[in-house]
């Protein structure tokens, strides 16, 4: 086994520094020195649900960048010293219809997650990127374009590809009208990408305080969701509404914003929802969702972001301040993504 250092959950609100073990490299593995890892709302949920009595180790982190330090004997796609990125999926069955279609994120036998997943060969629980080293199957790592800052690129591997999926599947481009509900870790990247794709882009927010930020990100307008007049004026306007709001909420006001034959795509809150069929019927509107992305889509997204200068707006903290980052994220005290610098684990 390979030994490294990481941040392991010690309870539902805190993590502690601890030695952790990685597997010896398999023939198609690479070892990655993790330099930067984003802090995602999924990490909050995982910590909240953590039960130390189960004895299951929890090391969060599923959006990170780093450098290859070793390769298995069958690896030809990466070399030592190369910059790479890894997202929230590190393996899949590779044979089902979804994997064959390049949508490993929808693998019929469920993809192996970067942390809290089950390794497909030895059955061990995967430990995430809040650590100085990660061992991953080489086909689930991606070359990091030189034009992308490694710290600001880390959130692209989760938040970025999550919003990229609906933008691409709904063929957003010049002439498209896109609204982004919620301007946070997901939302700010959705705005940047929609604008770069050529769409007329609007932010839907509960507060006018986000107007300046929305414009800085490239948004053409902001609609205050608490203002009935503004919401009424925007009715039946958007071909695609990307809903990144993480808390339970009423979907009806957002469906009213969708144009005929348009789509409301839920990305933030993935729990049970209630929808009146007539809200879909009037205008032939569609309700959809998306999560993460397959290997092809993730690689495409990274190239697009490099070509258009897109990266996350981040606040970098040394990994020793991981509990500060978790606490502030819980209070939504970040614009727009925390990224941990793991170099202090050396």
Q: Can you give a write-up of this model?
A:
- This protein is of the alpha/beta class.
- 24% of the residues lie in helices and 28% in strands.
- Strand 1 (2-9) and strand 2 form a beta hairpin.
- It is globular and about 60 Å long.
Helix content: 10-25%
**Sequence stretches where pLDDT stays below 50 over 5 or more residues:** none
Order of helices and strands: EEEHEEEHEEEHHEHEHEHEHEHEHEHE
Tell me what portion of residues adopts beta-strand conformation: 25-35%
Radius of gyration: 20 Å
Tell me the total number of β-strands: 17
User: Could you say which overall geometry the principal axes of the C-alpha atoms support?
Assistant: globular
Major sheet details: 7 strands, mixed
What's the total helix number?
Answer: 11
N-C termini distance: 18 Å
Helix-and-strand structural type: alpha/beta
**Average of per-residue pLDDT values:** 96
């Amino acid at each position: 086994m390979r030994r490294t250092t990481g941040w392991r959950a010690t309870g539902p609100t805190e993590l502690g520094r601890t030695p952790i073990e990685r597997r010896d490299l398999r023939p198609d593995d690479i070892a990655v020195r993790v330099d930067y890892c984003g802090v995602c709302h999924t990490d909050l949920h995982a910590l909240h649900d953590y039960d130390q009595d189960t004895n299951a180790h929890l090391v969060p982190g599923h959006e990170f960048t780093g450098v290859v330090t070793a390769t298995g004997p069958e690896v030809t796609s990466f070399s030592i010293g190369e910059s790479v990125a890894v997202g929230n999926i590190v393996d899949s069955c590779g044979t089902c219809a979804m994997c064959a279609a390049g949508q490993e994120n929808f693998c019929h036998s469920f993809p192996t997650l970067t942390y809290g997943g089950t390794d497909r060969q030895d059955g061990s629980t995967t430990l995430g990127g809040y650590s100085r080293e990660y061992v991953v199957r080489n086909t689930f790592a991606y070359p990091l374009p030189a034009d992308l800052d490694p710290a600001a690129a880390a959130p692209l591997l989760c938040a970025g590809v999550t919003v990229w999926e609906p933008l691409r599947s709904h063929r957003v481009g010049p002439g498209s009208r896109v609204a982004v509900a919620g301007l946070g870790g997901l939302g700010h990247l959705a705005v940047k990408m929609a604008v770069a794709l050529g769409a007329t882009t609007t932010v839907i927010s509960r507060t006018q305080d986000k107007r300046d930020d929305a414009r800085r990100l490239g948004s053409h307008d902001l609609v205050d969701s608490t203002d009935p007049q503004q919401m009424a004026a925007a009715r039946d306007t958007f071909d695609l509404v990307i809903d990144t709001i993480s808390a339970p909420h009423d979907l009806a006001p957002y469906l009213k914003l969708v144009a005929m034959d348009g789509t409301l795509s839920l990305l933030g809150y993935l729990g049970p929802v209630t929808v009146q069929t007539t809200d879909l019927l009037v205008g032939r509107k569609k309700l959809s969702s998306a999560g993460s992305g397959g290997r092809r889509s993730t690689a495409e997204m990274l190239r697009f972001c490099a070509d258009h200068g897109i990266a996350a707006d981040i606040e970098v903290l040394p990994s020793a301040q991981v509990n500060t980052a978790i606490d502030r994220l819980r209070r939504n005290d970040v614009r727009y993504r925390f990224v941990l610098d793991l170099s202090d684990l050396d």
